[in-house]
UniProtKB/TrEMBL annotation:
It is found in: Mitochondrion. One of its GO terms (cellular component) is mitochondrial intermembrane space. The gene is CMC4. Belongs to the CMC4 family. The lineage of its organism: Eukaryota, Metazoa, Chordata, Craniata, Vertebrata. Keywords: Disulfide bond, Mitochondrion. It comes from Panthera leo (Lion). InterPro entries: CMC4, Cys_alpha_HP_mot_SF. It comes from the Eukaryota. This is Cx9C motif-containing protein 4. Disulfide bonds join 24-55, 34-45, 56-67.
């Protein structure tokens, strides 16, 4: 492979490694706007929080950084859930 081919090869893989836009970023921003507008009263922002949860449910675990909090919350619920005897 000559230098020109090597450069193109590297560029192609650099493109693949570029971070992708978070698919649920818009919903996360809407939550921040809502919280700021409502003096950080979470109860006033349940509708936008639910929209983020819906967005997170559409993507595989780990695909959206903003969804990681919900993913961790779900894992904690599962580990803290008492087992039936």
């Amino acid at each position: 492979m000559d230098k020109r081919q090597n450069k193109n090869h590297f560029s192609y893989f650099s493109f693949l490694d570029m971070p992708q836009k978070d698919p649920c970023q818009k919903q996360a921003c809407e939550i921040q706007k809502c919280l700021q507008a409502n003096n950080y009263m979470e109860s006033k922002c349940q509708a936008v929080i639910q929209e983020l949860r819906k967005c997170c449910a559409r993507y595989p675990k780990g695909r959206s950084l903003v969804c990681s909090g919900f993913e961790n919350e779900e894992e904690e619920k599962l580990t803290l859930k008492p087992t039936a005897k």
